[in-house]
């Protein structure tokens, strides 16, 4: 595990804004280019620029960095913002698989990847609004 001091944040471990931007861009590159992510890709607009920015801004604040998302849009209200989209187990699992690939490509520490995967799973599962 990486050396963590009491003041080290997840934001720091992810490489700050630049590291989070790389993670997010890699995530959306996989989603956009790989057919196994077609279900979640279909939930997004043709142009992913706004989606990339929103996830980047959200993860910056979520990880202990600047609250870029909240400054622009207020409280994230993640579940409410995702309710218009049909999200089931398959969509959840595609999102998580895509993020796992992005974390691996970002060369994050294995323990950090596990920690993030557990947190992302809990949130992604909470986003589900249908059973299957």
Explain this structure.
By secondary structure, the chain is an all-alpha fold. It has helices at residues 10-13, 16-33, 38-41, 49-62, 68-73, 78-82, 89-105, 110-127. The protein has 8 helices and no strands. It is globular, with a radius of gyration of 15 Å. The relative contact order is 0.16.
Q: Overall pLDDT, averaged?
A: 93
Q: Largest sheet, described in full?
A: none
Rough outline: globular
Q: At CATH's second level, what is the architecture?
A: Orthogonal Bundle
Give the H and E element order. HHHHHHHH
What ranges have pLDDT less than 50 throughout 5 or more consecutive residues? Answer: none
Tell me the number of strands: 0
Helix fraction by DSSP (H/I, runs of at least 4): 55-70%
The proportion of strand residues reads under 5%
- The secondary-structure class comes to mainly alpha
- What is the C-level CATH assignment? Mainly Alpha
CATH superfamily: Globins
Q: What is the terminal-to-terminal distance?
A: 36 Å
CATH fold-level topology: Globin-like
CA-based gyration radius: 15 Å
Number of domains: 1
Count, helices: 8
Brief characterization of the structure:
With 132 residues, the chain is mainly alpha-helical. It is 65% helix and 0% strand.
Tags for this entry?
mainly alpha; Globin-like; globular; 132 residues
Produce the secondary structure layout:
Blueprint: H1 10-13, H2 16-33, H3 38-41, H4 49-62, H5 68-73, H6 78-82, H7 89-105, H8 110-127
